């Protein structure tokens, strides 16, 4: 089985602003990877690179053993962006319509088939929002909206879920329920990459941790991360930057 994601010596800058420097890491299929690092440390950028939304300046990226540039099985990837759960950033479509978008890759240009509709209803059921299916997505709470985006990924039969701070602005109870859902999806074999600012949450949930601050400070199982100095080192250096006033 090829890794879900393989990142080799990847470097990326926005113009002359370096964001990711010489990062190498492998996410095996079935892993639950927590991606952590201080604000502005390049987490979102690295995730975008992994998904082919940015092209690396140097290095290579493969998804399921294929170069990301030519990877075509987009339906295998479910991505919930940092903005996805924010209010007002969404179109006035219903929850069921959003989830149905997850089937377009399967339906092609044809009409949705009965199996497509079944997949949509099952995905709504799995994340527990069947009763919200006819509501407009922009009328949901943050936690409900984020479930809708997960359902869209499930409807597409994604086997890699990439989530960028999905619980920002979500109340504690919905957040716990959401992480419980992620756990059970991961138990079913879905690979999860989660950017999460709450280190406690991520070390509770993830089996692997990548800690970055532009460069990779640590990548390995969660236990080895907790025992390492990577966290203090990665966050400490950003603290230093803050203290260097001119
Ligand atoms: P994180 O997700 O860890 O907060 P980002 O990947 O968003 O970090 O950002 C990494 C660095 O790249 C930061 O210094 C940020 O200011 C910069 N950056 C992010 N997006 C852009 C962009 N579109 N243009 C220029 N610089 C950017
Ligand atoms: Mg980010």
Description:
It is a single chain. It contains nine helices and ten strands. By secondary structure, it is an alpha/beta fold. It has a single domain, classed as P-loop containing nucleotide triphosphate hydrolases (Rossmann fold, 3-Layer(aba) Sandwich), CATH 3.40.50. A six-stranded mixed beta sheet has the order 6-7-8-3-9-10, sandwiched between helices. The chain has a four-stranded antiparallel beta sheet with strand order 2-1-4-5, with helices on one face. A hairpin with a 2-residue loop joins strand 1 and strand 2. Helix 2 runs parallel beside helix 5 and helix 4 packs antiparallel against helix 5. 41% of the residues are buried. The protein binds adenosine-5'-diphosphate and magnesium ion (MG).
Proportion in helices: 25-40%
Rg for CA atoms: 18 Å
The neighbouring-strand order within the major sheet is: 6-7-8-3-9-10
Number of helical segments with 4 or more residues: 9
CATH architecture: 3-Layer(aba) Sandwich
The coarse overall form would be globular
Run of helices and strands: EEEHEEEHHHHEHEHEEHH
Assembly form of the protein: single chain
Mean pLDDT: 88
Largest sheet: 6 strands, mixed
Give the C-level CATH assignment.
Alpha Beta
Topology of this protein?
Elements: E1 5-14, E2 17-27, E3 32-36, H1 43-50, E4 58-63, E5 66-67, E6 77-80, H2 95-101, H3 104-107, H4 114-126, H5 142-155, E7 160-164, H6 172-187, E8 191-195, H7 199-205, E9 208-213, E10 215-221, H8 222-227, H9 230-243
Parallel strand pairs: 3-8, 3-9, 6-7, 7-8
Antiparallel strand pairs: 1-2, 1-4, 4-5, 9-10
Helix pairs in contact: 2-5, 4-5
The structure holds adenosine-5'-diphosphate (ADP) and magnesium ion (MG).
Adenosine-5'-diphosphate (ADP) is lined by residues 14, 17, 19, 37, 39-45.
